[in-house]
Structure formats: C-alpha cells, structure tokens
Amino acid sequence: xxxxxxxxxxxxxxxxxxxxxxxxxxxxxxxxxxxxxxxxxxxxxxxxxxxxxxxxxxxxxxxxxxxxxxxxxxxxxxxxxxxxxxxxxxxxxxxxxxxxxxxxxxxxxxxxxxxxxxxxxxxxxxxxxxxxxxxxxxxxxxxxxxxxxxxxxxxxxxxxxxxxxxxxxxxxxxxxxxxxxxxxxxxxxxxxxxxxxxxxxxxxxxxxxxxxxxxxxxxxxxxxxxxxxxxxxxxxxxxxxxxxxxxxxxxxxxxxxxxxxxxxxxxxxxxxxxxxxxxxxxxxxxxxxxxxxxxxxxxxxxxxxxxxxxxxxxxxxxxxxxxxxxxxxxxxxxxxxxxxxxxxxxxxxxxxxxxxxxxxxxxxxxxxxxxxxxxxxxxxxxxxxxxxx
Length: 389
Prior knowledge:
Elements: E1 6-11, E2 33-37, H1 41-49, E3 56-61, E4 65-67, H2 72-76, E5 86-88, E6 96-107, E7 112-117, E8 140-142, E9 150-153, E10 156-159, E11 163-165, H3 173-176, E12 178-179, H4 188-196, H5 203-209, E13 211-215, H6 219-224, E14 233-238, H7 249-261, E15 265-268, E16 272-276, E17 279-282, E18 289-291, E19 294-297, E20 301-303, H8 306-309, E21 313-316, E22 322-327, E23 330-334, E24 345-347, H9 348-362, H10 366-382
C-alpha cells in the first residue's frame, strides 16, 4: 500500500513572515528553539530538512525511530527485516536533542509542554533531579509534584503526532490483536508456524493456530495476505461492502476475483463484537466463534488527541495515488483520483513493478535504499526467513 493523503502536521505560528522566512532558513533574532512532536511522516521529514545550525531542535516522540508504514506488512511475514522499515531519529544527535516521551499537554499562551517519558520508570528519580541536567540546551525542567513528568519551553512548535489505529471500542482488541501498522507484528507469523509444527499438536489445533483473521480490507490488510495464503487459512473482515474501498470499482473487482480464486474468505459487511484469546466473535455469524490463531487489525485511523486542541495551521498533501500488492507478483495501481499529473489505473505485473519502484524510491535513507532491494532479492533466491530471535 502506498497512499499519500494528509500529514497530521500543525505549526502553531504562521511561517509566512514578511521576509518569507521558513523553518529551513535562519530565525530573525538569534538561535530559537524548535520543538517537533512526533517522529512520523511529517515530523521526521521536518527533522531531516531543518537547518540544524540555525535552530535548536528538540524532537519529542514515544518512538525513537520513523516507521516506513507501507513496508510493515512485509516485515510481519518475513519478506523484509524490520530494520529495513525504520529510520533512527538519533542519527541526528547531538545536533538534535531527542526525548522518548509523550506530550501530555500544551500551554500555548506560555509556550510550554508537559511531557511524560515513554520509557520504563526510573525508580531512583526524585523531584528536582531534572533541573540539574547537563543538557546543553537546558531545554527540560522538572514538573512540581511529579518525579517523572518534565517540562519543555519552545519558540516554535510543530505538532506532527499523526493518528492512532481505530479500535471502535471493540472489547479485547488492544489485549489480543496485533495492529499491522506497528512493529508488534514482527516475527509473529514465525511463532505461529513454529507452534503449529510441534509434534504434540493435533490436526484440529493446528488448523486453529494457522487460522488468521485480518480485520480491515484496506491496502494494509490486503497486502498482508499474500505471504500467508500458502501457509494458513485467511479470513479478511471489513464492515464496508467491498475491499480496497478507496480504489476504483474495477480494481476492487479485480482484487476480489483473485482472492476468491486463491481461497481467501472475504467477509465484507461483517462487524467484530469482541476479541478473546484464540477466538473472535462476529455479529453476522450469530453465536458462533471464529477460532483465531491470530487476529490482526488494519483499521482506519483517528486523529491524535492533541490535534483537536491545537490552534495551528494544518499542512495538507495532495493525493498522488494508491497502490496495493495482491500476491503472485501482481498489484493494483489507481491514479484516477490523483490531484495532479496523469490519471489512470493498472493491474497485474506492471502495477507490481510500479508498487516496488514506489516503495524503493520513497525509502528515505541510502542505507534502506540498499537494504530493501537486497532483501527482496534474497527472498526471491532463498525464500522468506521466518526465523524468530
């Protein structure tokens, strides 16, 4: 899947000053402090492009890396190593100060942030310790009454916290399902395959272990199926009447026909009631239970809680097109709704080549531009590596 629509990026102050100064030029008075919240598509792109000699840059994110989300489905099934889908934030240190933390609140009037570490609590931390930190930018200070929270001040603020995967308040999803747009799925398929191969497992239990329930018929959910189809039973659930809802109708029909030929159960207009360990309850199936060796979620996303409270100016990116891999070196490519440039659609091997080339060209670092095609080539020659370590 590769679909560019919107970055959840907000700047709290207009950058269009009379001199047309931007974040990537020099501030008018001295070296100001720029705080970036989030290390996703918007935040990481600004982190890369900013002139770090002219700005004191601080990035606050619960992850110390950028996730190239279109490649995570390939990582989950062993096509790529997880390191090929991430870009470390700390490569820009010490020019940039990086805090692995959540931003709990923003005081726009006084230009202050209250942050909570996303790492394990430090047991010996005491109130006031942080004030004696040797941080060269002296950017963080302790929050009175808390041994964990800290405070940051800023001159300019970029809110690029992105979005969360929707759970629709379905009980058990957070506890028992894997979200495909996170690193949590890495190596899980290998574990299921190893468990099913144990000599003490009966055939009935083996079928349960290899029964994968994928909830969400968008590009992320669809792309996850091809590598598993030959190993397991695949069930693809979606509340919509069709899979690949944002694609052209002809492309939806093409993918649906291929999946049915492959023996994939397409259960559209189905609603998940709750998820338990090793089983999933679906409204349209009555009281029956779907035994699930794994339940994997690829739902739509919702705005981060910080975004509704922000008062900045969102940066929107025009839609450039959508791609989805559907297995056997075939894909679907849709540019019928592109904001600019040629419009059209494609299926089959040519669409697959476009899909691969898009992923290759959009990877950010030279390292990953080498690693990604290398792993693709090794996978083609030697097969997938499902080792778990």
